[in-house]
Every structure is written in C-alpha cells, then in structure tokens.
Design goal:
Helix content: 25-40%
Strand content: 15-25%
Radius of gyration: 24 Å
Largest sheet: 7 strands, antiparallel
C-alpha cells in the first residue's frame, strides 16, 4: 500500500492549462495519461456540465439533463471495504483513491463506480455516527468524482456481519456492527461442510437468524441502520460541492438481501412483497429527507431470483412491489455464473450467447417495472480451479450487457438487441495480493493473497512493484467501446472486443459475408457498431458519445457512418459530425463524438468504429458506408 501528500493539498498546487476557443471551451490535456498529481484536469466541453446536473430514469433508460440515454459502466470500489485493515474504507489514503480513480478511468474504461461503505464503521456504537469515517469516505469518493466518474454508494454486507464469526472460523462476514449482533444470543456460527462461502447464507444458523432479525427490526436494529444511512447521505450532500454531488447518481440501500429464513406460509415472493419492498420504501423516504429527492434508489431483489442453478433459484425480482417501480427506483441486480464457479455444473467454457437468456430476464423485469436496470455485480475467480473459464465468462457477460442477442444472430436481426445495460464488475481493488488482513481479528490468520476475503480473487487490477495500477485481465476485454450517452434512442449495439483466452483470439461476432467491404475494412481488429434513432425531446444539439478504449488510437481509428465517414477523426469543434475529445476528469481517456444534423428528429443513424486499421482507400470507405446504409435501412428484429 502506498500513501502520499493529501489529494486536497496537491490539488491547490496543480498547474492548469486551459485552451480557449472562440465559441466554446474545449477540452485540453496538459499531459495525456500523466500520473495523478501532475496532470491538470481537462476543461469540459460546452455540454458536459449541463449534462451532469441530473441523472434520471425516463422511458426505462437512464437519461442525463440533456435528455441523452446514458450507460453506466465500471467497477465496484472495492472489496477492501469488507476488510478491517483500512478501517472499512476502500483505500488506505486519499492519494491511493486518486491513483485508483485515474487508472480505472484511463485503463479500465469505467465511467461509474459502485462505492462500498461499511455500516459497522459508520455506526460503531449505537446511535453514534462516526463523522471521521464519513469524512474519510467522502474524500476518497471525491477522487472518483474529480476524475469524471459517476458514483452510487452501497452500504455493503455479506453474511450479515464479521462479528458473527469467531477467531478460528473458516469464514467471515461484513456489514452490521458488533453492537447489532453481539448480545442477541445467536448460536456459534457453523456452515457445516461448505465448499463455498455463499452457502453460509442458507446453512449458517447465526447468519440466518441475524438476517431474519434485521428484516423484522428486532430491538430497532433496522431503524438504527436507516438512521445511519440518512445521516450518511445528509453528510455527503452537505460536504460535496454541488457539481460533485451531481455526479452521485443514486444509492444502493442493501447488498444482496435475503430473508435468512421465512415465516410459516411465507415464500421468497411474498417476503419480497411484505418485508423487502417496505424496507426499500422506508429507505427511499430517508433519501428524500437527506436531500436526495432527485436521485433514484438502486434497489435489489432477493439475491437468488435469477440464480442459474435451478435448485438455488427463488421466485422474485420485485414482482409485487406495488405496481411499476417508476423513475424513483432502479432495478438493481447481480449475476454470477454459479454453474461455472462451482466447477461441477458447467464443464468447458462459456460460449457466444451464453448469458443472453439470463440478461434478457433482467431487461424484461426492468421493463415490466417501468424503470432502468443495472447489473451492479458480476465477475469470476481469476485464480483457482475454475480460473481458466474467466476470459470466456467475462466476455459472455459483457456481450449480454451490450445486447440480448448472441453474435451469430446480431447482424440479421439487430432491432431485437434491446437496451444496452449498465453494469459494474466485481471488483477494482488495487491492493489485490498485497493485503495484510487478520481474519476475524486472528493474528495467526493474516491474509495477503487475492481479495483477502473468504478465498476470493476477483480484482481486475493490482499494483505492480513500482506502485502503479496494472490490469490483471485482458485490457481488450475490460476497456471497451460503449455508448456512454446517446442523443436519441439506442436501437442496437454490439462490440467485438477480440479479447484473448490464452493465445486464442475470441471472435464471436464476425462481420457477415453479405457485407464484404465492411469485413475487409474491419479485418481482424476490434470494432463496434451503434444503431440509433436521433432526437431526445429536448432539442439539444449535444452529440452522441462513445467511450473510446485506449487501444483505439484516434490516428488509427476509422468511423463509417451516415454522418460522414472518416479515418483519424479530428478534435471536436461544434458542428463537426465525427470527432474525438478527452473525457472529463483529466485522466487521458477519450471519447468519440457523433453530432447529427439539426432538425432530424427520428432519423435512423449508424456508426461503425474500427480500430487499428491504416487509412483505407476512399473507394473502400465509400463501399463500406453504402453496405451499412442499406443494412441499417433494412434492419429488423
């Protein structure tokens, strides 16, 4: 772990380089990709500040204040919060948070983080909120906000509380403080012959009873949690600037809720209706009281509602939440391929379209609830007996986030693609493999490897020997092309990342032979294709934005679009139909900006973005555009 000069002090001494243009303030980087503390923040483009004034839910999609559809992509920051070594904070220092934020944006391609908080550390004594903890958490959160990254906090728990477990336990938990569980007379925890820590949820009597008591507000324990949550939200609203608070997009009330046990005659669905949903409504009221009226609650259903092992699945998905959830709530769910993780129920590796059905269920449930969806956790172990599946499992998950179709059918029926889903991968922990965690306070069980929590190892990042954050997974998989803001409505999107499984390049969505010039232009490189309908109801000329991965050098990027095809797109100026600009935050990350002509509401547009190609002959560019224009006009579902 590393530390350094506090971020706030460093910020006062940063040099700034702002380039003035005649009509607008354009983004300019002093040192693209420079380390935190040396790079001046990029000046925003004219539409950036207005766009971030609010993030709302409209017509089942996230929308910014300019009416553009928004996709949130990023990581959980971080499982370090579940440990004690840094006092329930994601980072040892604000400097580490800044270093991590810059790497997440520039190398991981994220525009959003789910920021974990600890109830145990926010309220270490009943009725006393630890303002020092909140101050430290706020300063670490600020590092991400300054880097142009949206944030939604999460009061995290797994297995309810570390304080249910003993010094010699095989497992541990996190979440509730000691005062909430210490005097309840729970039995000594035991999961029996459990191969995976998650089995404690349904087999460990201490965890089951403590969870049940929380949901039934034994001794006012749920009331205390809600009061602390309100105090935390009020603190954030009071101590972040208005611009920073605008980048906080909502709050996740409770991670992976489960009943613990059901009352007689109750099942998972009636528990959601009678117990879980009223809790979410109470949390929503606390948000309103804390000044978060305009931000949605990212509410989770029973965690087993979409389990992909049949005997583990429980009916749910907030089906009985009093009608449509509406814009004040977001349908927030997780997905882990438990078959693949088990090493028993899925032999071999994930394939094209592996999770199309699983994520179609998420889209359908959100649509039925009248709101947007976010898959706030997904991932796969990077070490251990099933680690060989990780490259294909993660590729298949990202494919399913992008579209509900497998690659084999995407080109033939793109309008069945569905909305592009938001998601945050588990996890982004720069201390991966460098922890020093005394498990359950036992000095004889100091954990250093992986995530240092119940044998997990899922972090996409680590620190190298120089203290620099580096990726542990293929950058082609993680740093992805995606439509971060669409001026209109997304009709279809796909991205062929060409990520690797060992030495094998995974190509699940090749350009079909019916588009020979497009196939020739793309070759073996990465490419993405967005099909959208212009017009957002606000009349704004703000462009459509796609995050441009670091592998897409603008000088070697080709964009084939009805707006005007171009190789090596120029820097953005107002009215330039295809252009490149830095993303806000001064991290060196870039975006592709596509500006449709004024007065074309409802017009269908397409943009193919291809990487690594030398300048194509004009004839090839024209033929590729002709093929795509005909394809887009005839596209159907």
């Amino acid at each position: 772990m590393t530390s350094g000069t506090p971020a706030r002090a460093r910020g006062r001494h940063r040099r700034r380089c702002v380039v003035a243009f005649t009509a607008v303030l354009l983004a300019a980087l002093c040192v693209p990709g420079a380390a935190p503390g040396t790079a001046a923040p990029a000046a925003s483009l004219w539409f950036d500040a207005p766009a971030t004034r609010a993030l709302t839910v409209r017509d089942g999609r996230f929308t910014d204040a300019l009416g553009r559809e928004v996709v949130l992509r990023g990581y959980n920051v971080s499982g370090e919060t579940k440990l004690e070594e840094n006092g329930g904070l994601p980072f040892a220092s604000a400097a580490d948070a800044e270093r991590s934020a810059h790497a997440l944006r520039a190398r991981g391609g994220g525009n959003t983080v789910r920021f974990l908080l600890s109830w145990a550390h926010a309220e270490p004594e009943r009725g006393r909120v630890d303002r020092a903890y909140l101050a430290a958490a706020t300063e670490q959160m600020r590092a991400f906000l300054r880097a142009g990254i949206r944030v939604y906090p999460d009061f995290h728990q797994d297995l309810h509380s570390r304080h249910l477990f003993h010094a010699d336990s095989w497992y541990t938990g996190d979440g509730a403080p000691e005062w909430a569980v210490g005097n309840a007379g729970y039995p000594r925890e035991s999961c029996g012959l459990c191969l995976f820590w998650g089995q404690n949820i349904t087999q460990n009597e201490a965890v089951k009873r403590a969870s049940y008591d929380f949901w039934h507000n034994r001794d006012g324990v749920q009331d205390a949690f809600l009061a602390t949550a309100q105090a935390t939200m009020a603190y954030l609203a009071d101590h972040l600037t208005a611009d920073e608070f605008a980048h906080v997009v909502g709050f996740d009330p409770y991670n992976e809720p489960h009943a613990g046990r059901y009352d007689p005659g109750q099942d998972s669905r009636t528990w959601e209706r009678d117990v879980l949903w009223p809790f979410h409504e109470r949390f929503r009221a606390r948000m309103d009281a804390a000044g978060w009226q305009d931000k949605p609650a990212f509410v989770e259903p029973n965690l087993f509602w979409n389990a992909n092992i049949d005997f583990q699945r429980e009916e749910g998905g907030l089906l009985d939440a009093g009608g449509a959830l509406g814009p004040r709530y977001v349908f927030n769910t997780h997905f882990y391929d438990q078959k693949a993780i088990s090493g028993i129920f899925m032999w071999g590796k994930a394939k094209d379209g592996q999770y199309a059905g699983d994520f179609a269920a998420v889209r359908d449930r959100a649509a039925g609830a009248g709101t947007a969806a976010v898959v706030s956790e997904f991932g796969h172990p990077l070490t251990g007996t099933v680690a060989d599946k990780a490259p294909t499992v993660l590729k298949a998950v990202y494919q399913a986030l992008d579209s509900r179709l497998p690659g084999t059918t995407w080109w033939s029926r793109p309008l069945a693609s569905g909305p592009v889903l938001s998601g945050t991968q588990w996890q982004w922990d720069i201390y991966s493999g460098r922890h020093h965690e005394a498990m359950n306070g036992n000095p004889g069980k100091v954990l250093t490897e992986g995530d240092a929590w119940n044998g997990e190892d899922l972090s996409a990042v680590r620190l190298d020997d120089t203290g620099r954050p580096v990726l542990r997974q293929d950058a082609r998989l993680l740093d992805r092309l995606y439509p971060s803001a669409v001026a209109g409505r997304t009709l279809a999107f796909t991205y062929e990342d060409r990520s690797r499984d060992g030495s094998t390049t995974l190509t699940w969505n090749p350009v079909p032979a019916s588009l020979p010039h497009v196939a020739q232009l793309v070759g073996t490189g990465q490419y993405g294709l967005l099909l959208w309908r212009a017009g957002n109801g606000g009349g704004t000329p703000a462009p459509t934005e796609l995050h441009l991965p670091a592998t897409f050098d603008p000088a070697r990027t080709t964009v084939v679009t009805d707006l005007g095809s171009v190789h090596a797109p120029p820097s953005y100026t107002p009215g330039t139909p295809v252009a490149v600009a830095p993303e806000p935050g001064g991290t060196g990350s870039r975006r592709l900006l596509l500006t449709a002509p004024d007065g074309e509401p409802g017009g269908r547009h397409f943009a193919l973005v291809a990487q690594g190609a030398s300048a194509p002959p004009d004839a090839l560019l024209r033929e590729a555009e002709r093929e795509l224009r005909a394809w887009a006009q005839s596209a159907h579902d």
